[in-house]
Amino acid sequence: MSRLHGLAVTYKIGLELIYAGGLPFVGALIAEGHDVFLDAKLHDIPNTVERATAAIAALGASFLTVHGTDSKTMDAAIRGRGESAMKLLAVTVLTSLDAADLRQQGVAGAPADVVLHRARLASEAGFDGVVASAEEARCIRDTLGRDLLIVTPGIRPAGTVAADQARTATPIEALRAGADYLVIGRPITAADDPLSAAQAILHEMNAAAL
Fold first, then answer.
1. CA 154/CA 171 separation, integer angstroms
2. Which residue in 15, 52, 99, 152 has a CA-CA distance of 20 to 30 Å to 165?
3. 148 by DSSP, 3-state: which?
């Protein structure tokens, strides 16, 4: 974190770090004035989702992810958030999945169709935004308008490997497709020089506005 001081203002804490003692780290980041995107991907019975969301809101997180597969789960998260300012983001289809993976799960339709369906559910539930790949961002934006935030993972700057991601995009592609926030992990954390990698990505993002 110290190596990116001054560049990053929002930090994503995902499952790997959460289960490695990351929740105290969340508190430390918030105390230093940073926004925290808690990528917990909640998905459980409504009572559990509601109570977990309430607990996370009490931590002071700025963003929380919940799987957007059904209205019951998302309605529970809305209740759990209460009056807090925490923004709820519905995970539509993980960027590691393709059409074959969805068929294996028993989900019919192309990823883009499933993503748009779940984005509609999220909008109707009162969620602040969705997590979706750049491949679906433009369709979400065109269909559901500007009010729904689009957070895009699977970002891979030109020349980097996709690894386990199936639906990727460069920073410029994602922003021009309508993404509001980009989730950028391994291209920075796995780089030999994370600071230089982050600076290069910010330069590429700024180019999207030109």
1. 10
2. 52
3. coil
Residue with tokens 């997590």: 131
Helix (H, G, I), strand (E, B) or coil at 175: helix
**Which residues are catalytic, by number?**
41
Domain ranges of the chain: 2-207
Instruction: Give domain 2-207's CATH number out of 2.40.240.10, 3.60.20.10, 3.30.540.10, 3.20.20.70.
Output: 3.20.20.70
Q: CA-CA distance, 129 to 67, in Å (whole number)?
A: 12
How far separated are the first and last CA of the chain, in Å rounded? 29
pLDDT digit string, tens, across residues 66-124: 999 999 999 999 999 999 999 999 999 998 888 999 999 999 889 999 999 999 999 99
